[in-house]
Write a structure and sequence with these properties.
By secondary structure, this protein is an alpha+beta fold. It folds into two domains: about 325 residues, FAD/NAD(P)-binding domain, CATH 3.50.50.60; about 100 residues. Helices cover about 30% and strands about 20% of the residues. It contains twelve helices and 23 strands. The strands form seven sheets. Strands 1, 2, 9, 10, 11, 12 and 23 form a seven-stranded mixed β-sheet that branches. The chain has a four-stranded antiparallel β-sheet with strand order 3-8-6-7. A four-stranded antiparallel β-sheet has the order 15-16-14-17, covered by helices on one side. α2 links the parallel β1 and β2. α11 crosses α12. It is globular. The protein binds flavin-adenine dinucleotide (FAD).
Length: about 450
């Protein structure tokens, strides 16, 4: 790839204006990043390929917000917490409780978020849009980021492809919240492709409606019985992962799975086709084999393959397995991550590669600051983390937290000419605490 192509050619494109902070990607991280940058006084544009916000949560059909709580205590507040409260007020969220994995009938209200939150893809899209608009963020959906123009280690513009054709956006600061460090990769910054043995399975979660009396415990018991007898349409899937959705009779099934290259269009195309076949086959299987599913039907399938790990950025600090195992100290925390790793292993990953510890670990500010570039901040599942332990930061609670921190850092960065690597941590800390974040 010619990483300098847009540096040479961006100025020949029409400029659509200039912003203090441009956020690439409107997933959990990008939503929080754009709102916190705007709330910190920056003029912000949010660029998103899909026609709606939410990223994996909406486009990959995962309206199940985790990472807010860890072993029974709330560890993420701030913008993510506000989104949950707004979803609940709109009648679009409940806690997911008990071994039955069903929505809690008691409203969320002002209770601390000590459970996973079940919501809807529609709810996330609408409520996030309302919050972004209220914060004054300029929303530019249906727009693909193509790359950036860079001079002397600073990004000067982002090149986009809009419905109207290619254009450039002039910027002071950029937040890469693209999930797979797509912006950093395209400007030639140092990134790391997650190796196949730790990139986890790809999945298309799908939803079935008209399920009677769903209870995860009983479905899981029947599931075990069937797979022990070799009766399983997706032969590699050995664990039942399903939950009652917000609305009566709706069930989310985290059942399909495949291995493949999430950073290749050809790879994604093949996985997309194969997993849609898995959805059709397995929906029939659930209807036939499981009590309560007899009259169920497929209600929603994702717009894209669900990618757990693709590419991460190389940053001033990298969260490593050693950090998670030993709970090493963090000098400049910007939020709390989980101390667990090894989920959704491919069959060849052995048990010894999984771990869960009872306490969280702070996420260091340096894990958001990509090396070799002065005005880009990483957020969400593509921050500086050893791919093997990406689960410590990839749940949506953590993506909201790193997004919010990236927004604050960028708003501070946009006020001067200094490199993000020289931003004073105390200033970031003060602003994050003002915005309600938990830092550790
Ligand atoms: C199958 C599956 C199940 C999961 N289950 C859960 C769960 O139950 N609970 C939980 O908390 N987490 C879960 N996760 C993890 C979690 O959903 C994600 O890690 C998290 O949502 C990532 O957020 P993000 O903002 O970092 O990135 P993403 O959600 O990936 O958002 C990135 C955004 O950037 C946009 N983008 C990328 N490139 C470009 C470009 N060139 N131009 C314009 N836009 C671009 C994308 O369209 C996307 O909207 C799951 C993940 C998967 C795949």
């Amino acid at each position: 790839m010619d990483y300098n192509f847009w540096t040479r050619n961006a100025d020949n494109l029409t400029s659509i204006g200039s912003w203090d902070v441009a956020v690439v990607g409107a997933g959990a991280a990008g939503i929080a990043a754009a709102i916190s940058a705007a709330n910190s006084g920056a003029k912000v544009i949010l660029i998103e390929n899909h026609g709606f916000p939410g990223g994996i949560a909406t486009a990959a059909c995962v309206p199940n917000l985790m990472g807010f709580d860890y072993h029974g205590s709330q560890i993420v507040r701030g913008i993510g917490d506000e989104l949950v409260r707004n979803l609940a007020e709109a009648g679009e969220a409940a806690f997911k409780v008990g071994a039955e994995a069903c929505p809690d009938p008691e409203p969320i209200g002002s209770r601390p978020i000590e459970h996973a939150v079940t919501t809807t893809t529609h709810g996330i899209r609408v409520v996030a849009n309302r919050m972004l608009k209220r914060a004054g963020v300029n929303l530019l959906y249906y727009t693909r980021m193509l790359g950036g123009g860079v001079q002397d280690g600073y990004v000067k513009s982002i090149v986009i492809d809009r419905a109207e054709g290619p254009a450039r956006v002039e910027v002071k600061m950029v937040i890469d919240a693209s999930g797979d460090a797509n912006f950093l990769y395209r400007i030639g910054a140092e990134t790391l492709k997650c190796p196949a043995d730790v990139a986890m399975t790809k999945t298309m979660i799908f939803q079935m409606s008209n399920v009677r009396n769903f209870n995860r415990k009983t479905v899981a018991a029947k599931f075990r019985e069937l797979i022990e007898n070799g009766n399983n349409p997706v032969a590699t899937q050995s664990v039942f992962m399903g939950y009652g959705e917000l609305h009566e009779g709706a069930v989310g099934l985290n059942y399909t799975e495949i291995e493949g290259d999430a950073l290749s269009s050809q790879g994604l195309t093949g996985m997309d086709i194969e997993m849609r076949e898995q959805v059709s086959t397995s929906a029939k299987w659930f209807k036939k084999k499981f009590d309560g599913f007899e009259n169920a039907y497929i209600k929603e399938t994702p717009a894209q393959v669900g990618i757990r790990a693709g590419r991460v950025s190389v940053c001033d600090e990298t969260i490593t397995q050693h950090d998670i195992d030993e709970n090493t100290s963090v000098e400049n925390p910007i939020g709390l991550g989980l101390r667990r790793y090894g989920d959704h292993g491919l069959k060849r990953i052995k048990k010894a590669d999984r771990a869960t510890y009872k306490t969280p670990r702070p996420i260091p500010m340096g894990a958001l600051l990509p090396v070799g570039i002065n005005n880009v901040v990483a957020a969400g599942r593509c921050i500086g983390v050893q791919p093997k332990v990406i689960t410590s930061v990839r749940y949506m609670g953590q993506c909201f937290a790193t997004g919010q921190a990236a927004g604050v850092i960028s708003a501070i960065g946009a006020k001067g000419d200094a490199s993000v690597h020289n931003i004073v941590y105390g200033d970031v800390r003060t602003k994050l605490l003002e915005q309600g974040a938990i830092l550790g």
